[in-house]
Write a structure and sequence with these properties.
The chain is built from 5 helices and 8 strands. The chain is of the alpha+beta class and 237 residues long.
C-alpha cells in the first residue's frame, strides 16, 4: 500500500502536538512535504530516476528534456524509439570530452564528421547536468535509452474536497515510499523552524534536518554495498 501524504502529515501533527492544525495547517504541512520531495531529489537524484527515451536533436548537443534534473546514465541506441517493447541497438559508451577535443578537435563539425542516426559515445559535464553531447553528431533521427533524474510532481489536495480535512490529503507521495521517514523529518524541520523563537525549537529543527540528511547519506552507502556492480570484476562475456 502506498504511503499517503495524509499519513506523513498526521504523524507530523502528532509529534508537534497540533492535531487540530491550528498552528501548522494541513496546507502548510503539505507545502513542506513537497519541498522535502524536491530536497530529496537534490541530495539523492536516483530517488527520482526514470528510464526514459530521449529523442535526439540534429547535432552534438542534446537535452534531457523538460522537468529533467540531471542525466544519470545513457544505456543504448534504440531502433524503435516510440515502440513498445523497445528494440535496442548499439550500446553507447561515455567518453571524456577532453579526449575527443584532443584527438578530434573538429568533432562538432558535420563537414568533418558526418552526422549519423546511431550514437557511439556521449560526454557529460556535471556543471551542465541537463545537457550532454553525442559523438558522432546526430541526424535528428536517433533516440537513446537513458536513466534520468526528474523533478518530482507535487502532491495536491484531492479535487472537490475540503482542504481543512485531513482526508483531502489522501494522495500518494510522488517519490518512492522508502523516503517517507526522510520526508517526515523534513516536514518537522520546517515546522520547528517556523517557531524557532520558542525555547528548544531551534535545536529540534536542526536535529530533524540532520536526521533527514543522515538518512539520505546512509542510504547512499548501503546502495553502494548492495549494488550489483559492487563485486564486478570486469569478466568478459
Amino acid at each position: 500500500m502506498p504511503v499517503l501524504a495524509s499519513d506523513i502529515i498526521d504523524r507530523a501533527q502528532t509529534i508537534v502536538q497540533d492535531k487540530t492544525g491550528v498552528r501548522w495547517p494541513y496546507q502548510e504541512l503539505l507545502q513542506w512535504l513537497n519541498d522535502g520531495q524536491r530536497e530529496v531529489a537534490i541530495h539523492k537524484p536516483s530517488a527520482t530516476a526514470q528510464n526514459d527515451v530521449i529523442p535526439l536533436q540534429p547535432g552534438t548537443l542534446q537535452s534531457i528534456g523538460d522537468g529533467g534534473l540531471c542525466l544519470l546514465r545513457v544505456i543504448r541506441n534504440l531502433k524503435t524509439p516510440v515502440g513498445t517493447p523497445r528494440v535496442g541497438g548499439r550500446a553507447c559508451r561515455i567518453v571524456a570530452r577532453e579526449v575527443l577535443d584532443a584527438q578530434h578537435p573538429s568533432w562538432h563539425d558535420p563537414d568533418v564528421f558526418a552526422y549519423t542516426k546511431e550514437v557511439k559515445h556521449f560526454c557529460f559535464d556535471e556543471s551542465d547536468p541537463t545537457h550532454f553531447y553525442v559523438f558522432p553528431g546526430n541526424t535528428g533521427e536517433g533516440a537513446l535509452e537513458a536513466v534520468v533524474s526528474r523533478s518530482p510532481a507535487d502532491v495536491v489536495v484531492s479535487p472537490g474536497t475540503d482542504p481543512n480535512n485531513l482526508a483531502a490529503y489522501r494522495q500518494p507521495i510522488t517519490i518512492p515510499d522508502i523516503y517517507s521517514n526522510c520526508l517526515l523529518d523534513y516536514v518537522l524541520f520546517r515546522a520547528y523552524s517556523k517557531d524557532a523563537d520558542y525555547a528548544g525549537n531551534s535545536e529540534r529543527s536542526t536535529h530533524h534536518y540532520q536526521v533527514f540528511a543522515s538518512s539520505l547519506g546512509v542510504k547512499t552507502q548501503v546502495e553502494a554495498v548492495v549494488s550489483p556492480n559492487a563485486n564486478q570484476r570486469g569478466v568478459a562475456v
